Amino acid sequence: MSHTAHIPSHRKPRQSASKTALRAGVAGGVLSTIAVAGAAGPAQAEPVTQTIEMPTITAGLSTAVAASAQATQQVALDFETRANEDAAASDAAKKAKKAKAEAVRKAEAKEKAEAAAKAKAEAAERASRSAERTTLSAPSSSSSASSSASSSGSSSAGTSVASYSSSATGSAASVVAFAQAHVGDAYVSGGTGPNSWDCSGLVQAAFRTVGVDLPRVSQSQSTAGTQVSLSNLQPGDILYWGGAGSAYHVAIYVGGGQFVGAQNSSTGVVQKSLDYDPPSGAVRVL
Q1: pLDDT of 249-275, one tens digit each?
Q2: For residue 180, is it within any domain?
Q3: For residues 195 and 126, is the Cβ–Cβ distance under 8 A?
Q4: Domain span at 157
Q5: N or C: which end of the chain has fewer CB within 10 A?
Q6: What is the phi/psi pair of residue 204, to 5°?
């Protein structure tokens, strides 16, 4: 036995000729098939020329989008319009409320001003009459002398002339008699009787007894009849102090150079001489 017999050989085993020929035949067949397929393929294949049309939705979608946008815009406009209307209504309501409050304030202010003016005028009239008549509470020597001459020695003008017998007749006599009947009554501002008077209240009541309805206040009574001269007085004439139309006091001429009037709160209704307090003018109603 050789000494290398136990070492395995590194050579590949030889293939038999029959196997080699078989493989070659198989390979050749495959290649032939490929060649034939390659030659026949281009001639038999047809290009794809069919076009697939997809449905068009662009027009419908754009219309829907436009409609939606228009609707959204309209809603926005509606909201804006409503907001503007609400704001305008609120502003108008505020202005109306403010105007009403201002009108009420002006009306109240006007009423207060008128009331204050009336009260001031009345106070001024009372103050003026009081200032002009302060001396009536204490008869002067001249009036006492005049009264004494016409009343058979009586010392008080108020009491002496009360007994004077007026020469008046008819309606004038009734006016004079009414005035003299209330000598001694109290003086009350705004008084219209039966036992308390202010100057114009007494004159108005006296003339009412003969059916003559005079104005209520002295300013109006001073222009209620025909203006007459103080040198041509007749019983029943209305005497006034101050200007015609702005008189602050009135009384009734009873004849004999004397008058009856509601003077002030200190003296009440008295009968006095014209010399004691000469009037500004006179009017004749009867």
Answers
A1: 999 999 999 999 999 999 999 999 999
A2: yes
A3: no
A4: 140-284
A5: N
A6: -60, -45
